[in-house]
């Protein structure tokens, strides 16, 4: 799950990324999307801990995000702003307001939520809306806290 965070870091700090940067301290925005209880906040806490080793230990217990959690990760020659957006059904209509200012979308899926509900928010992410400014989108399969997780579905 955290290989994606490492990949984002490697991409953001690569020589090619710095060549396209117009300033010495470019800022990139990444939004974390997914259904409620998919593990977005846990992923966000782990990413913060990965890039800020002197920060307190990541929270083991999290509460549902109402609105958003935002953090800024300082990397060489850039800042990466990470937006953890609530996944409750009533908050999903707000996701589109983040698209215009983001550079990447990370869609987190709880591996125990396999079914029709997983594809429900896809229309909002893949829609015909041309307001998105992102070239990259990634998915992360998370959780593994239930017996039998990681086993192929029948």
TrEMBL record:
This is ADP-ribosylation factor family protein. One of its GO terms (molecular function) is GTP binding. Residues 120-154 are annotated as: Disordered. InterPro entries: P-loop_NTPase, Small_GTPase_ARF, Small_GTPase_ARF/SAR. SUPFAM superfamilies: P-loop containing nucleoside triphosphate hydrolases. Residues 136-147 have a biased composition (Gly residues). Pfam families: Arf (PF00025). The keyword GTP-binding applies. It comes from the Eukaryota. The keyword Nucleotide-binding applies. GO terms for cellular component: Golgi apparatus. Mg(2+) binds at residues 41, 65. GTP binds at residues 34-41, 87. One of its GO terms (biological process) is intracellular protein transport. Keywords: GTP-binding, Magnesium, Metal-binding, Nucleotide-binding.
């Amino acid at each position: 799950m955290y290989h994606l965070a490492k990949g984002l870091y490697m991409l953001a700090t690569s020589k090619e990324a710095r060549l396209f940067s117009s300033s010495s301290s470019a800022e990139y925005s990444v939004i974390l999307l997914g259904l409620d209880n998919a593990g977005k906040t846990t992923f966000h806490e782990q990413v913060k801990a990965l890039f800020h080793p002197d920060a307190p230990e990541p929270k083991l217990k999290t509460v549902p995000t109402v609105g958003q959690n935002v953090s800024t990760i300082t990397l060489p020659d850039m800042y990466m702003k990470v937006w953890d957006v609530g996944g409750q059904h009533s908050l999903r209509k707000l996701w589109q307001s983040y698209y215009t200012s983001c550079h990447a979308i990370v869609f987190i899926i709880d591996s125990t939520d396999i079914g029709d509900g997983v594809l429900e928010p896809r229309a909002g992410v893949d829609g015909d809306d041309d307001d998105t400014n992102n070239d990259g989108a990634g998915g992360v399969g998370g959780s593994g806290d239930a017996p039998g997780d990681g086993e192929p579905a029948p």
